[in-house]
Design a protein that fits this description.
Blueprint lengths: L7 H6 L3 E2 L3 E3 L4 H7 L5 H8 L13 E8 L6 E9 L2 E9 L5 E13 L2 E9 L4 E9 L11 E7 L5 E9 L1
Parallel strand pairs: 1-3
Antiparallel strand pairs: 2-7, 3-4, 4-5, 5-6, 6-7, 7-8, 8-9, 9-10
């Protein structure tokens, strides 16, 4: 099968623009997967792993384009869902208009580690502030309130992503 030389515009076109606010949680990817197709390997290599030459995901890893944050100026903000075995992440990445990566951060996830389920849910408002609530459960259903914490992340006007320090314990 011939290799396709995708452009950054081709990559961005996979992400429908969405006005904020939006919440990303454990099951939100189902909504995106009904309307968007997984990203082709060539796009993953060129735009998701551009600084990691030879980076290879296992055969079970999948990337689903979720959305482009609408009304950004000077940069492009995209969110994709990365699915691995027992690890699911929503990744926010910002790029220059030419496609150069500015910043990238996992903002929501579901992970199974050491017999516990760890989850983080993110809400992005129209000022590009991201509020993250995180916690874990030993049985996958009942979350331990002492493990819960909330923190803030923000996309700056230059496309950098700042924050993610714990602002308070819940």
């Amino acid at each position: 099968m011939p290799t396709v030389n995708y452009t950054f515009a081709d990559f961005v076109a996979k992400f429908p623009p969405v006005s904020m606010p939006v919440t990303l949680g454990e099951d939100t990817h189902h909504v995106f997967s009904t309307e968007n197709k997984p990203l082709p390997e060539e796009m993953i290599g060129k735009f998701i792993h551009p600084t990691e030459p030879g980076a290879v995901d296992d055969e079970f890893t999948e990337y689903m384009p979720c959305l482009a944050i609408d009304d950004t100026a000077g940069f492009v903000a995209l969110i994709w869902w990365k699915a691995e075995l027992l690890n699911y992440e929503y990744v926010l990445a910002t790029f220059s208009p030419k496609g150069e990566l500015i910043d990238r951060r996992v903002i929501a996830f579901t992970r199974v580690k050491d017999g516990a389920v760890h989850r983080a849910v993110a809400t992005i408002n129209d000022e590009w502030e991201i509020f993250v609530a995180e916690g874990h459960s030993s049985d996958g259903n009942n979350f331990d309130p002492t493990s819960s914490r909330m923190y803030d992340v923000e996309i700056m006007l230059d496309g950098t992503i700042v924050g993610a320090s714990y602002s308070r314990e819940v």
